[in-house]
Amino acid sequence: MVDACDIVVVGAGPAGLAAAEAAASHGKRVVLIDSQPRAGGQVWRHDALHGQPRVAMDAIRAAAGNANVTYLEGTQVVAVEPERLLLQDARRGFHLAYGALVLATGARELLLPFPGWTLPGVTGAGGLQALAKQGWPLRGKRVLIAGSGPLLFAAAATAQRHGAHVVGIHEQAGASAVHRFAAGLWRWPGKLAQAARLRLELARVPYRTGSIVTTAEGDHGVSGAHVRGGQGDERIECDLLAVGYGLLPQVELAQLLGCALEPEGAHARVQVGPWQATSQPRVFAAGEACGIGGIDCARVEGHIAGLAAAGAAVPRALVQRRDRARAFAASLRQHFALRDDVRGLANDDTTICRCEDVSLGAVRTHTDAREAKLATRCGMGACQGRICGGALAELGHGPRGGMRPPLFPTRLATLGEPVLSSVSDTRGYTP
Amino acid sequence: MSGHDLIIVGAGIVGAACADYATMQGMRIAIVEPGVVGGGATAAAMGHLVAMDDDPAELALAHYSLGLWEAFANLPQAEFSRCGTLWVASNDEEFARIPEKIARLAASGVAAERVDARELYRLEPSLAPGLAGGMRVANEAVVFPPAVARHWVDRAITRGATYHADAVFRLDDRGVLLHGGQRLHGPVLLATGGALPSLLPGLPVRLRKGHLVITDRYPGVIRHQLLELGYADSAHGGDAASVAFNVQPRPTGQILIGSSREYDAVDTGVSMEMIRRMLERSFHFLPRLRELDAIRLWTGFRPVSVDGLPYLGRAPGRDDVWVAAAHEGLGVTTSLGSARVVVDQILGRAPAIDPTPYDPSRVQP
Amino acid sequence: MKMSTVRLTINGLRVHVPAGISVATAIALVGQPFRHSVTGEPRAPLCGMGVCFECRVRIDGVAQQRACQRVVNPGMRVETDG
């Protein structure tokens, strides 16, 4: 017998938690799954030193603590079959049948290649934040943060709270774009307050606009970076370099399910209707997977998706809140649009596919993405093209192709011998 | 406008081999391929260079081809790895039949040896206990087929071949008309694999779907291409769907896991049910696989002729239309021999092996 | 936060690390290198969230595990190829 439930929510970040709570409050049996060891998603990731913000703990308790919700941590969807998912956790693979599905698969960072970006000590900006919260040793380390968007501030603040010496934040967008963005923040008072708090916390950290990290240097690990900005080129010494150019919707599961996608810049997001329904029957999507929109957007979309998946009425006020939150996302996208020169940092010798060590020069000679893959192995490694695919799309080398299972590297035992029942003997959430 | 000596339609492994050999013979050729070079069944294939002993004509073509493959043993992009083939006997009955197989292979010049159970586990310590022994064909190898196809097409182009990234709209007695409107004049060689009937409805091709799984890198788990001796029952049986143990060590340390066969499956999607059956069979022989990670699953379609042998030669009832297609699961192995058998005939020469068994005119309209 | 520690081995070294941290972090805390790429370059975690696969290690004999996705457990045996 295959385990079954009314609604499966994939992803326990703000969107997924809201969806699970909403569906469960209408009496539906919900299974909430997340690949990370703890609930909260990326933005509410549990901090080994500082725990989780109150709002996150409340949201987790409201969802995972609901009697109608079974929460499966450290669990990944690896394949899709008619009416059921194939999942695996650290120990086993198992099937889960569902009546409806809510995709709250979130986002990952857009990481663009530049000479030296493969050195140990070079991470994403969100990557540094995630590692810091896992307890990564940062005390006394000189950290340089660069890339684009408000995530740079969040990463810097987290690093600083973990004892790092943040030597600078370098934003690729020009000063006027950033000022226009800040000037428009009064329309979203919560965002304005948060920005002000972060700016105060980082008051002693130099913030530069129109500034780009062009190269990372070091022997066995990063020891410095070259930065190009208004004042010309300079070399900055650092022990860690965190560079992130914003976020990308994670659409792979939606792709596997056959949900229609639509373009988000050079990338893709899940297409949804007013009640978060995708193009596939009984499949809903919410949050960053539907386009980068931030936490407020994710929460309200999750709420809508959970209600819609449960067959409950969606109050008009929620739809209005969603539209307002989406407007913030549009403003963000507009003001932090990437400048052309960040797409030209990698040279022919720069590694583009980190799994298979394929250089940009090797890929550049091919016009077709599939031909490049067959000829160079680009994208054939364990990350399944998640890193190089996003980078190549941003660099104008065409979008990634279709998605095939498994969604993530999967134990052969999961694919060959999934166990019959698992959810029922899984320990429930304990607050 | 001057014509071509030969227009090769299809740049899979077989068409690419034909292009390479024809240009080596000084022919002025055109290559027509609407997709990626080696992007069809060639990209989906395992790339195992193997002689199967169950049909004499198939074995003759394989042996001829395996000799020709030696010229590419040092080509870096071929990823040629001489891992050898180890056929595994599940029981005493299978083990007892090995000497006949060795004799049949030897008659065609393929050297194989019987290994007892002790030697089997010395060669492959990860195999499940309780196996009876096996047959080792030490000289056989694996390659990365799409990169080889690309190499052969590139070589043909440096020898003057013209490349047309287009599809054939119409085939007639003077050549082909491409979708884009261009007309190419000259004799035509169709190397279009499973797509052959769309241009030549008189030659039936059935598609036989296969699934493959590739793992992350785990060097040293296996050393040989491993197959169960019962493989031929799956490969040549008429069952609608069958699986067999067939795993391969890639030079990267990855393990490529087959194999499944399904007639008349039309969609290209991965069937998790077939994957499950295939892996269950693999675990039976190689339990260690359970703990390894798969990173990709895919499918492909083997093009099967009326009798399992490829169509190599003049199309029935046509003067200037030739065929090299329907190689089922052995297209990579037999590509080089196939190219010579066909192109030698086009040039009016006698091929090095008897071409009669592959003559498409064996198919009665 | 509990200040308990967990004992595990990393590349054969017996180490004590704070409970609740990720395996990736434990490796960094004790100063061990991470993986080498297929051409032999040293690598270390990039994304911190399980998508880049740069932090892969062997855990209790099973290779290719993402160290950033696993919390340290008592007695865990971690090996990097660094």
Automatic annotation (TrEMBL), chain A:
Q: Which top-level group of life is the source organism from? A: Bacteria
Is the keyword Oxidoreductase in the record? yes
Task: Indicate what this protein is called per its UniProt record.
Answer: NADPH-dependent 2,4-dienoyl-CoA reductase/sulfur reductase-like enzyme
Domain (FAD/NAD(P)-binding) ranges: 6-294
Q: Which InterPro entries match?
A: BFD-like_2Fe2S-bd_dom_sf, FAD/NAD-bd_sf, FAD/NAD-binding_dom, Metab_Enz_Cyan_OpOx_G3PDH, Opine_Oxase_asu/HCN_bsu
What does the UniProt keyword field contain? Oxidoreductase
Which species is listed as the source? Luteibacter jiangsuensis
State the SUPFAM superfamilies in the record: FAD/NAD(P)-binding domain
TrEMBL record, chain B:
Q: Does the entry feature the keyword Transcription, yes or no?
A: no
Checking InterPro entries in the record gives: FAD-dep_OxRdtase, FAD/NAD-bd_sf
What Pfam families does this protein's entry cite?
DAO
Alphabetical list of SUPFAM superfamilies matching this protein: FAD-linked reductases, C-terminal domain (SSF54373), FAD/NAD(P)-binding domain (SSF51905)
Q: Which stretches make up the FAD dependent oxidoreductase domain?
A: 5-344
Q: Does the keyword Plastid apply?
A: no
Record keywords: Oxidoreductase
Q: Where is the signal peptide?
A: none
Q: What is this protein called?
A: Glycine/D-amino acid oxidase-like deaminating enzyme
Output the lineage of the source organism. Answer: Bacteria, Pseudomonadati, Pseudomonadota, Gammaproteobacteria, Lysobacterales
Automatic annotation (TrEMBL), chain C:
Under Pfam families, the record lists: Fer2_4
Q: What is its EC number?
A: 1.5.3.1
State whether keyword DNA repair applies.
no
Provide the leader sequence positions: none
Entry keywords, A to Z: Oxidoreductase
Q: Which Gene Ontology MF annotations are present?
A: sarcosine oxidase activity
The molecule here is called: Sarcosine oxidase subunit alpha
Q: Where are the transmembrane segments?
A: none
EC supergroup of this enzyme: oxidoreductase
- The scientific name of the source species is Luteibacter jiangsuensis
